[in-house]
Amino acid sequence: RERSRPLRGEPADYRGVAIFIEVSHGQGAQVSWELIGKGKELAQKLKTKVVGFLLGHGVEGIAQEAIALGCDEVQVIDHPLLRNYLSKTYGKALTNLCQKVKPEIFLIGATPLGRDLSGVVATFLQTGLTADCTALDIDEEKGYLLMTRPTFGGNIMATIYCQNHRPQMST
Fold first, then answer.
1. Torsion sign, CA atoms 34, 123, 163, 53
2. In what side-by-side order are the strands of the sheet with 50-56?
3. How far apart are the C-alpha atoms of 2 and 148, rounded to whole Å?
4. In a designed cystine with 39, which of 3, 50, 127, 148 is the match (CB 3.0 to 4.6 A)?
5. What span, in angstroms and rounded, lies between the C-alpha atoms of 119 and 115?
6. Which residues contact 53 (CB under 8 A, 6 or more apart)?
7. Which residues contact 149 (CB under 8 A, 6 or more apart)?
8. pLDDT tens-digit profile of 73-88?
9. Is the pLDDT of residue 8 over 60?
10. What is the average pLDDT score of the chain?
11. Which pTM value belongs to this model?
């Protein structure tokens, strides 16, 4: 069948659970370490690996810590331009990592930096993003990431999933 725009990867081409390792005051942010634990649970259900995405300058020690805390591998972009957070610079770097590694799921902490960065990356990748999730699980029949978050002023919980685009992104 004909398509009017070029094909991005099909969902079946994507594997793994990626975690953005946020750097705060020269150390890995606590929320990133917590996400590695959740990422391991999700990866186990999908029978896949957990990959850390780490941006910054002089971050080798943080990469080793991420491995020690459960990442199967860490993709690092270490450059002086990444010493301080800039939306567009970080957004392009993470987008490039996603296009190279092709994670099925990409989790980013719901910190002020993470909320800003996740929107930039989702826009560049033309994929969905569910912000401020309170629960994450896997639909074991279809393999979708089930992202639960409050809605309608917090009175109702909604579970959202992303059928057609990858990675499935959540903060």
1. negative
2. 73-78, 50-56, 17-21, 105-107, 168-170, 129-130
3. 35
4. 50
5. 7
6. 18, 19, 20, 21, 74, 75, 94, 97, 98, 101, 106
7. 130, 131, 132, 133, 134, 157, 158, 160
8. 999 999 999 999 999 9
9. no
10. 87
11. 0.88
Query: Position 84: which residue type?
Result: N
List, for residues 115-157, the tens digit of each pLDDT value: 999 999 999 998 888 888 888 888 888 888 888 888 877 678 8
Predicted pLDDT of residue 130: 84
Whether the pLDDT of residue 51 is over 80: the answer is yes
Between CA 92 and CA 89 the distance in angstroms is 5
